[in-house]
Prior knowledge:
It contains 10 helices and 16 strands. It has 295 residues and is of the alpha/beta class. The strands form 5 sheets. It has an 8-stranded mixed sheet with strand order 5-8-2-1-11-15-16-14, sandwiched between helices. A two-stranded antiparallel ribbon has the order 3-4. A two-stranded antiparallel ribbon has the order 6-7. The longest helix is centred in the middle third of the chain and has 24 residues. The model has no long low-confidence stretch (mean pLDDT 88).
Amino acid sequence: xxxxxxxxxxxxxxxxxxxxxxxxxxxxxxxxxxxxxxxxxxxxxxxxxxxxxxxxxxxxxxxxxxxxxxxxxxxxxxxxxxxxxxxxxxxxxxxxxxxxxxxxxxxxxxxxxxxxxxxxxxxxxxxxxxxxxxxxxxxxxxxxxxxxxxxxxxxxxxxxxxxxxxxxxxxxxxxxxxxxxxxxxxxxxxxxxxxxxxxxxxxxxxxxxxxxxxxxxxxxxxxxxxxxxxxxxxxxxxxxxxxxxxxxxxxxxxxxxxxxxxxxxxxxxxxxxxxxxxxxxxxxxxxxxxxxxxx
Length: 295
């Protein structure tokens, strides 16, 4: 392909993105950053540059990140014995201490990457400004340690950061009424933050391509589903264990006022741009009651 064809292709791509930029300019977008895209350095750079571009074209992104794999690595390095209840790791006091240190390290690394691209970012945890107020979360009535259930999101700090042209980068640590620290599931945190901030979009970066009608058939990827369809799908028994809570989070976010929730394959470079700025998109979008054109 010659230079002119290359230039024309780039022009067409930019032209396709224009209506989406016009439609969502000034809107809040929450990106839940996790999975392989956090581990692979080139994918890490891709995600951060996507967020930077979202910011520079006038969107107002908020990044919420996890760090489960990194926490597990450091817990093992510390030689701590890990207990499990109902398949969930018990977060005792020493594990909580490591989790908070690791999450803050990841947090500041993401901030630095964004600043390198010329975008002002500030990393906070849910403890800052008591942004995430929690209570102890139980698993089937059993204590799993310092794991928090979000009771309240205080939007004041995040709103001030957005109003002052910063990208908030948030790690999912919250506090209870006695100001004890609790680890929070990052998907839950992203969902609660998106709802409280009135986000237009919430994007989950995952290690799967999206939602399939038949998990064994790659041709059955669902591009767009409504909340009623998602509920029906949840009850069908065709949803794998890891997707169950994520799909429920999507439904909860839509019911709380988020316009559209996207489940994206974070292993695909520039997945956010492909989903937000192209007509076809690449993942699964969950929308309200009536199926709409994907945007």
